[in-house]
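DATA SHEET
Item: assembly model
Revision: 1
Owner: S.N.
Input lines:
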Amino acid sequence: MPIPDPDPNIAARQRWMAVLARAAATQIEALLEAVPPLPDCVVLRGPEAGLVMLRGRAGGAGTRFNMGEMTVTRCTVRSTGGQVGHAYVSGRDGRQAELAARLDAALQDPARHDAIQAAVIAPLAEAQAAARAETTRKAAATRVQFFTMATMRS
Amino acid sequence: MSIDLPGFADPVSGAQTCFRAVLDAMARPGSLHAAGQGLTPPAPLDPATAAVLLTLVDADTTLATDAACAPARDWLVFHCGAPLAADPAAAAFVLATALPDLATLRAGTDEGPEEAATLVLQVAALGRGAALRLAGPGLRTPATLRVEGLPEGFASAWARNHALFPRGVDIILCAGDQLAALPRSVAITEEAS
């Protein structure tokens, strides 16, 4: 999990960027129908796909190792209001990256923030939390209790 | 932060077209080539200068800029991903609007002449101004390149750079949406205009 930034504005932006990064383009598009159209944007970079090295930590000392590469698509846009929106999403869906970047720019605009937060981000976050809870519930049913000899003797 | 300007509209074909222009310019020193049409780089960069940097500079090459180009640094780092070098002597690419001392830039070694720096020099104009007479590989007969914005004594500074061959700095001259190249192999004399 990412470490939240101490600055509340940045932490809030991290939250909505994380929600958008996990949402499919079709989901975002469906929810966008309920809000006024997004401001026009100039694409500054991308959407472009690339590889990101994932690093893990192993052993008691937490030594870093390269776990493998992951496909990531990124996009940066500037809205007519001057806000610059960034998006880094997993996979190769350029449409999702562009939508996420445009929403990131729109969410930084105080005049649009509340409407988009309520109509797009909140339902997406809720759906993602529900999906996660469902996975956790299914996994919990398969839990196996291990007993060590020491535990059994006591 | 001044990253709010786009790079190439189509990064792949934009960089390929500009790379071809740089290649042709290096192969035929002094010839003028179009580059960077349609680009809207931040001040003080001209479209050709920006196109050359977007094409050649990436995460594997260090870039140094002179103080006059400092406002464009954020934009260059954002689009090229290049690490900035504080010291021009350590940089693979040097961006300048005024001719730096060529002897201070990386000249490569006899074993690794490709490690020499490339100077991307933005000048006032190409095709007019003081005439330089160029001779060397790539030129069947000596060619003339007119450049506005090079300082007095450029030919003697270049002669010292040229004498280092196979080491030495290569220069890409950019103005507006035109570029010309001065590879280290070319010999330059100033023509009386």
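QC remark: Chain B has one domain: 11-190.
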